[in-house]
Amino acid sequence: MLDTETLVQQFDLLACIQCGKCTGGCPISPKSALNPRALIYHMLLGGDFELVSRDELWDCTTCATCGMRCPKGVKAYDLIIGLRGQWIESGKIPTTLRAPLTATLNQGNPLVLPREDRTLWADGLDVKNVAEGAEMALFTCCENAYDPRVQPMPKALVRILRAANIAFGTLGLDEQCCGSEIRRVGESGLFEYLRDDNLEKFQAAGVKKLVTTSPHCYNVYKNEYGSPGIAVEHYTQTVARLIAEDKFKFGKKFEATVTYQDPCFLGKQNGVYDEPRAVLKALPGVKFVEMDRSRERSVCCEGGGGRMWLEGTNTKVRLANDRIAQARETGATVLATACPFCFLTLSDAVVATGHENDLKVMDIAQIVNAAI
Amino acid sequence: MTQSALVIGGGIAGIQTALDVADAGFKVYLVEKEPSVGGRMSQLDKTFPTLDCSACILTPKMVDVARHPNIELLTYSEVTDVQGAAGDFRVTVKKKPRYVDMTKCTGCGSCAEACRLKGKIVDPFNAALGKRSAIYVPFPQAVPLKYTVDPTQCVYLTRGVCGKTFRCKDACKAGAIDFTQQEQCVELNVGAIVTATGFDPFNATLKPELGYGVYPNVITSLQFERLSSASGPTAGKILLGGKEPREVVFIQCVGSRDATTGNLYCSRVCCMITAKHAHLVKDKIHDARVTVFYADIRAFGKGFEEFYDRVRAEGVQYRRGYVSEIFKRGEKLVIRSEDTLLGKPIETPADLVVLSTGLVPRPETQPLANLLGLGNSADGFLAEAHAKLRPVDTAIDGVYLAGCAQGPKDIPDTVAHAKAAASAAIVRLRRSEQWTVISDQFTLSTTH
Amino acid sequence: MTTRGFLPVTNGDALDATREFLRTLFDKQIIDALLVSVEGARNAIMPALVKNPTRLDRANPFAPVMPFNSARLVSMLTRESADVRLGIVLRSCEIRALIELVKFNQAKLDHAIIIGVDCIGTVPIPTYTQTRDQTPDWLAQVFSAGKHGDAGAMPLRAACAMCEQPTPAHADIALGFIGVDSARALVVELRDDLAAQLGVRADAADAEARAAILANLIAARTATRDAALQNFRAQMKSPDGFASYFAACLECTNCMNACPICYCKECFFRTANAEHAPRELLRTAERHGAVTLPPDALLFQMTRLNHMATSCVGCGMCEDACPHGIPLTAMFRAVGARTQKIFDYEPGRDVNAKPPFMEFRRDELQHIGEME
Amino acid sequence: MKPRIGVYICHCGLNIANTVDVEATREFARALPNVSVARNYTYMCSDPGQALITNDIRELGLTHVVVASCSPRMHEPTFRATIHKAGLNPYCLEMANIREQCAWVHADKKFATLKAMDLIASAVAKVAWLVPLQTREVGVTQAALVIGGGIAGLHAALDIADAGFPVALVEKQPYLGGRVAQLYTTFPTQERVADLLAPLIARVTQHPHIRVIANAKVEQIEGFIGNFRATVRTRPAFVDATKCDACGKCVDACPVSVPDAFNANLTPRRAIYRPTPNAPLVVDATQCTYIQDRVCLSEPRCVAACDRHAIDFSQAETVSELNVGAIIVATGASAFDATLKPELGFGAAANVITSLQFERLAANPAEFAKAFGAAKEIAFVSCVGSRDATTGNAYCSRVCCMVNAKQAQIVKQQFPAARVTIFYADVRAFGKGHEEFYDAVRQSGVRYRRGYVSEVYRRGAKMIVRAEDTLIQKPLEVEADLVVLGVGLTPRAETDEVANLLSLPRSGDGFLLEIHPKLRPVETAVDGVFLAGTCQGPKDIVDTIAQARAAASSALAPLCRGTVKVESATSTVNDEMCAGCGLCVATCPYGAPALNARTGKTRVNAVLCKGCGACAAACPSKAIQVMQFTPRQILSQIAVLA
Questions:
Q1: CB contact under 8 A, D639 and C280
Q2: What range does the domain containing D269 cover?
Q3: Banded pLDDT at B443 (limits 50, 70, 90)
Q4: ipTM of the predicted structure?
Q5: Do A134 and A81 reside in the same domain of the chain?
Q6: Disulfide check for C232: which of A184, B122, C172, C334 has CB 3.0–4.6 Å away?
């Protein structure tokens, strides 16, 4: 049994007028029992509310469309995160979630890989430690750090920054998970631990400026770490700025028709729409096209909110598959994104839909790198 | 004591205030920044719930205002300075050059026919759905019916040269066109000022998820008015790109009741505007499927609920749930929402989507408010002296509010509010003498 | 309140007793003058204004013939107030017409004493005047028919054959012979004060028998009426029903002249307003091929119908006056019945009831109402 | 002289031109008898359109003008002024309505064109018979009567008085403030009504231009704009205010106990009572057993109880006659009688109250605490007697949503532990600050459940509220300790009386009817009579005040000017033809015709006549005719069509 009264207060649910905009915009609701409005209503009505029968809570991607659209400022996704927290607290942790959580605590990453392997991606790149003196710290997402499929992205970024003569460094083996997805699966205790630990490490290393490879890290540092006095940028912002400041010379053409998937945590949640596009449009040879559903109307790839590790109830076709079809409608040959989750889900989807020869999923960093 | 009043804004509120104050025998200066009086109401097709043709009921009032011996109309003019206090305001009004001699222009329209830019300039009167020339009257029933050169568009005024010869000047048989006209300032001395500067429709591009500006078949309610109007760009036919929509969707509360836009308030008129539009679609395209998405239907005025009943009876579907987003699938738009009464997310196909946009304060009212020393309410509209008891008075003695400058209102409420402002102004103009007891002047006879 | 009693008949001559009774009204100074039908030369029965009671020796209110609806005459006599107390001997239909005229300010009853008489029905004037010599005792027929409540043997006028109000209402004094043996006595019902003055004692004998005979009579008449109205309505079913009904109308206006209710000083159809310019008639003829002359016969009938429909009392004088025998009574009664029902209005029933045109009630005609 | 007629055919943009071949119509018109010129133009009502007409009048010497365009309702004044400007008598104009009666109702262009031609031919036939009429003005009594001393009447009276004119404010009750006086607080600002009302009433009662006549009734109104004569009957208080020190002994002594209507019948009062907490004592003559000759008989107990001999049963009614130039009707509205919805349990159970009763309870902290302090669950029911065909009130009452919200918030603020639920179908928070207030009310913990309440019944000490929660599609039974019915506003029972007094029509919802719902919301069918406040339809306080001041503005025009124009096309009587039947008198809504006692024939008071023609239609002999609509004129019009 839940204390709905507290949840109502905590998540400001009294503001809700039951207009349904949250459910109407939810990318998951059409194929899952997930209905944020009804969820809120049940909270408002109070009384008996059994979490256990609500497996669909694990379907939420925390893309935050519900909250962005809400005319009364209610954040349904926060409520869902809170409910997941209740679930976790009750000890009934979904089986597929146990290993990532444990690994994050022990190894600083949810991929269940050793802490000491974190910098393997940078082997041979001679990346400095930020403590050695750098104007900015590069923060690698666990995915980028460990998953070979997305490791090329930080590598590309390193080359880009060097090309612009930017002095940067990483936290080295002190770098660990930002906690964004940990918080989103409801493990707030672990998140708080990571936050405090990370902040301590940033402070120790004298980090004043942080550039993240993932929008999820960007979001969590920018919005959920309090105000630690650290300027946070997503790398697309950094690169866009450097291009605007004319810090690059592009030696090559990147001849392709490119469209772009807005990562929810970059676009909808933080309003960073223009910089990634500015970067792509600045590249010689790139013909940039928009998908119909872009920017504020973009669609989640279904990679966030811990969906990378969760089963949920949602067994229907993944949204990423739809996205491939939509990208192909534009005539694009390259589907760009700026998020490791997006990259992975979209890459899977390209394979699943049998379009690996028609459409290439690339991170913006990779594309920029290809043009330098 | 100055026996005259200034009314700023020539929409229905300003017109009504001016007429009432003038009818009471006072001189009224009516200042309108556009070339014609008429305001927003002149853009409307029909009015709810009676379906009166808006122009048909407004035009006589516009004509009355122009004809009234006590009213001096200052169109295409703006207030630039206000000094003094109640009873003795000194107001500077800037008369913008029309580049047309009002005394000579017959309103024949030959100049607009001849203009090089004929049919090329986006027509704001038609809510950007139509095109006009650089020399123009805003609409056919304009008062005064005198042409005006748009200085931001005219080839001559923007580039210094317009071919070998001015086509408009050649075309004008009355010799009315005069590019030497300069801005003029007039000084007015008035006892009371009524601010009736109206509202703007909400800028729907601020709700990007609804696709306005992206899809040509997503339009605003003001655009629908022009589409439906016999004097509009489609001569009253509901046509988009030459095609008649089969499935029409109306979306409520676009820019109202919405913290994401900062407009927490209800715009008061949109529910009924949509009901009217839904009726008009049904009236013009009998078999059209019309759906209205809403959260609360606010049909509160006289005859409104009855009209809402009528529209539902005509087969318009009301589905409870705000629309979350719009995208395209093939030729159709897809409207994503939840039907909150079914508890199910739904997708509704549409050929035409009409956004029922709310009312917002006009940005250009703010400098005027500053000149007058007026404050704003939390919603950004001009603040009245007391929310309950003094809806037309302001914190400044002698300055009153009329119509939507104070907050969203429908036409009858605007007219009532404007007349109330007129009453306040009349009272202010008549004040100053020492009143004596006259309440006993009635008694004709008293019997027990 | 009223007193019911008997007027004794000596010598079996009810008419004589009646004449004596009327004289008594003069003697007791109840009236100063009397309007009553009298026998004239050539069998004519004509109303006369009697000032000298000795002239009542030819009075005959029971003659089964009605040259006039005397309400018109009462209007003539009472329009301006006079201090003459006027007695008026009238049949039911005449009283009803009079009540209507009072409502239209065309008659005043302030100083009038209405003496109502039973009417078993009247015969056409020619029938009466031409046959009286051969069947000298019309009166005997009347009293006999009255006694049995059955005038089947009499060649009644169409209006009378469908008259369901044989007894007078609203009379100060009512003399009755229907359902009683008039050779012995007449029923008299009169105001209490008059009863006292005239020495009429209350006597309810035979009341039930009279009531039963009246009920039978009324039932039979009602049946005749309904058949007549149904017949009329059937004729109206065809599109040109009204036109063919009046095909023979000359617009002679005799009907109007005979009508007790038509009170206009001058009929509109006789004024210059109703004249047609020759040019107009020629143009209409050209437009339609031909135009019936006189041109306004149907308009005239329509107008009369419009003016009369609520007030028509069904006396049938119009039909008697029509040179072409157009069955006007059935028309007026049929249309009147419907119209009067709509307004819940019965002409002649109540002098205080306002005619429909003079009264606005919020709840009337709601079924017509606003269409939306 | 042969008439010279000009015919002007308007395209009305495409309104007409789309359906009617305007050029063919023009050619047809040109060939009609007496027509000198026929033209068509896009918008005849525009300045250049009018210029066409004035030029022709001057240059071609036209004597009469036909404009074929829209309904004359709007533009007849426009074109009358046009031809007048060119020197013609403004009444030598006829309009053919080829828009509403032709173009808008037909689709077939051929037939619509033929019909337009017929209508024009018909207008041409009539116009030649039109005669010049004179425009007329009458003087104005520069004083006003305001009927109703509620918030609307108070504001209307103040504006007129502040503008310098005497105002008589007649109030039926012995106190001022009307319905608003019964309220506890306002929404959305939650100000105490008493604090707002007291200064307002003081300003009115102390105003040198306002004569307050309370406890009085307007019995009769005669006359016309500028020259009304009102008869006002004032009931005596039977208490000498100069002697009374409001000690209350008389009240204690009074044997009568009746429900106190001011207190929404929650408490009883005596026959001698204080109508409001601050008002002076009065005797309710309808209840006083001395006046009604019952219990008290010769020795009224109140008189005996009063040490100061303030009670004076010798006081008599007074009848005053007032001359005024304008009248403002501000007679207000009633709260819906909740017993008409028996399924909601009002009257059957003490813990079902109306929103008006809530206000009275809230105004009395002790009573309020007694009623609400222990309640765990309180249900508010929306739309009781509004939006409800079963009650005949199809309309929305405009204020109840916010009243519910405000009251729910009051409960929540004072008794935070109480569970407060509002059942609704649409929340109508449309006024300035209302949506924000609705937001705040939800934030205070008030629950909104979508679904009208179907029934309320007792189970033990609790009331069961039955409804469907339409958002979860489940029927509900909510146990409530108290149920508050958000009753709507209805026309006052005496609306008919007021309507008859002034010959005012009522709209379909039963409220008094304004003359045009959009642009003339305070004017009535009777010139010089204006509507203020809820007598015209439900309104909240702020809208009521705006409308009241609007009515004042309308009233101020004739008062300031000192004269008014009256209709010229009035009816006239042909004495020869008049039979004096009085049909015209009964038919006229304005009281213009009257039977002359001497001649027995009708005379028309031309100042009252609006030229509506009802009399002419009713008159069987056409003895009464409206100028410009005489039988000759109309028949010549018809003859063309025959």
A1: yes
A2: 249-305
A3: low
A4: 0.76
A5: no
A6: C334
